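Form 7-S
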Amino acid sequence: MKKIRLGILGFGTVGGGTVGIINNTIKEIERRLGRHTTIVIEQIALRNLTKKRAVDTSGIKITTNPLDVVNNPDVDIVVELMGGTSLAKECFEIAIANKKHIVTANKALIAEQGNELFAEAAKNNVVIAYEAAIAGGIPVVKAIREGLSANKINWVAGIINGTGNYILSEMKQPNADFGKVLKVAQDLGYAEADPTFDVEGIDAAHKLTILASIAFGIKLQFSKIYTEGISKITAEDITFAQQLGYQIKHLGLASRTKDGFSLRVHPTLVPNSALIANVDGVMNAVMVNGDSVGTTMYYGAGAGAGPTASAVVADIIDIIRGLEQPPQDRVSGLGFALNSLKVEPVIDITEIECHHYLRCFAKDKKGVLATITKMMSDSNISIDNLHQEPCSTNKNDATLVILTNKVKESSINKLLEKLASFKDIDGEIQRIRIDSLE
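Output:
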């Protein structure tokens, strides 16, 4: 029986899950591979040699130096699960030079360095597979790259960070606020001690960079994504949104426009009628709109040992299935011929047009509301919905919630500047974009 040998870099949650799946389901994997082929784990690089492991590693070579694995002549496929971008990139480069295929869950490295790495991989006739980098166990890369390859993709929208989705979901509970729910998320292991990458949208921006590339056939352009986090969202905003028929979700949104591509991550009010509005907890979901198929949605667990390792092993199987194909006949990592990928224009967030949710505290006295509505009229911004109620923290104020018509972001920004200078408005004005996902 032909043996394909793996070298695994990193043996944390996902690394352990990957070895566990291979150990427990090798007969099923062999059936899927066919051609009398099996998988053998040749070597693992890990940090701590003495740490007790949940999975059996007997018979596997162990090292603390990842470079031992990528330089091991007996390793056919490198499985990179360390994270980070410095050492991981060095390992990628050596593995590619040594003609080893790579499976990874490293969204940061792919998003930030992927253009260069995919080009080098193509020169060396090796494959970089990265399904696990985006939405854990959801096979969204394969769905877009292969399943929807007959379509011109119009837009992609996704809940692609489980931590942020968990926080926003839990903030629907009575007496919840961002800080309290974040602490619970950290205690449960859903959020890191430093949650910045998750709650400020950086993790989602890495994933959206890759989704946009495979959807539209453009170069990876992480630096151009507009990114906004959820730390300023209040339980009051979530309650008002629900009263108005919406849910607040932290979305990655990528779409075609007449002037280029819109790439953005930010909190978004989505109508209750949208399927994605009902995705709660740590689950992920990605909606894709194609010109022929219409809108499809992919839902499931976006993180964790089992789901993410499931995607890793699926990529390993795909690479082995394609080993006998001539390199020129393989599906490229980003789904398009690499020489066709270009740095397409990404439009500035100020050029985006959408509806907006505005919330502010205003003096509860005659003439204030009239002044605010006149400011809006003078800015050519119409009101779709207006809600006013007494402020819960200051009896002299009223809470105003306004939903605007569809308007360019630059116009809303100018309005917010005017409102901020109005003496009868107290504190910051909350602004959340609205998207119907149609």
